[in-house]
Amino acid sequence: MVLSEVHRYWIGFCVAILANIVIAVSDTIRKKAIIRRGYVPPENEDKYVHVKDSVLWISIILLIIGEIINFIAFTFGPTFLVASVGVIAIFITAILWKLYYGENFNCLGWLGLVFSILGLAIMAVNFPRREISMDILELASKLDSSGFIYYVIAVVIVLLVVACYIVPFFGSKCGPVYVIFSLVAYSLVGSIAVVMCKCSGYSAKYLITADDWADNNVLYTALFIVVTLVSICIQEFYMAKFTNSFTSPGLVKAIFFILRTALVGAISNMIFEEWSHVRYLNIVGTALGFVLICIGVLLHPLFSDYNFDQALINEKFQAK
After folding, report:
1. Which of 177, 164, 178, 196 has its CA nearest to residue 263?
2. Looking at the structure, do residues 107 and 163 belong to the same domain, yes or no?
3. Residues 195 and 89 in one domain
4. How much is the pTM?
5. Backbone angles phi, psi at 141, to 5 degrees
6. Interatomic CA distance for residues 95 and 103, integer angstroms
7. Statement to judge: residues 173 and 256 lie in one domain
8. Between 192 and 34, residue with greater pLDDT
9. Beta-carbon contacts of residue 226 (< 8 Å; ≥ 6 apart)
C-alpha cells in the first residue's frame, strides 16, 4: 500500500508527538535519579556513581528510544513542523514534574500550554504537504549549493570560541555575555542536528524504497548519520551542563527551543524548499502558529514562581 503525501504528513506529525512524550517521560525519570542521590556534577564525584545508577540508565534508554522515534518522524514529516512539535515535550515534562515532584505549574502555565497546542494545530493545518523529491546525490549537492556546509563550518568555529574563550573568561565575570553566546552556540548546533536528522531519515528511506544501494548513496547516508549523532551528543552534553548551572533551567530550555526551531525553519527552507508554490495565507498561518508556540513556551518558565491560587483569583474578580 502506497501512502499519499497527506497521509505521510500526518503520520510524521503524530509520530513526532509520540517521540516527545517518550522524551518527556525520560526527563522526568532522570530528575528522579538526580533527586534521589542529591545532584552532584560528574566532575565532582566518583565517576562510577553515574554508571551504576539504574534509574539514570532507564532515562537514557528512554531518551534513545524517543530520539529513534523522532528520527522516524523526520522521514515522514516536514523538518520545521517536526521540530516545532518539541514544545509538547517541554509542557509534558513540566506537568509531570508538578505531579511527581511538586514543581510550580500555575494558571499561566496552563494558558501557555493552550497557546502552544493552538499554535501547533494552526501550523499543522497550514504547513505545506510538499515532500522532498530528489535522490541522495542531489540532496548532497543541495547541501553544498545552499551554503549549508559553510554554515556547519561557521557553527564549529563559534562553538570552539564559546567553549575555549567565552565560557572560561566570561562564565563568572559577565553573566549576560556568557548566557547569550552559549545559547546561540548551542542553538546553532541543535539546528544542525535537526537538519541532518532529516537528511539521514530521508536518505535511509530512499535506500530502502528505491533499492538503490550504490556506494555513493550508502557513503552519504552514513556520513549524514554520523554528523547527526555527533551534533546531538554535543548538544545534549553542553546543554545539560549549561542548564544545570541555572536556578531556572526551564527558561533556558524554552529560549533554546525557540532559537533552534527558528533556525531550523530558515535552513530547511533553503535546502528542501518547503515553501515553494505555497500561498501567502498558509505562510501567514504557519508564522502565526509559531508565534503562539513561542509565547506559550515562555509563559510557564517566566511566571512559574508567581502564586495564582484560587483564593487570590476570586478576590481579584469579586463583584462589588
Report:
1. 196
2. no
3. no
4. 0.84
5. -65, -35
6. 8
7. yes
8. 192
9. none
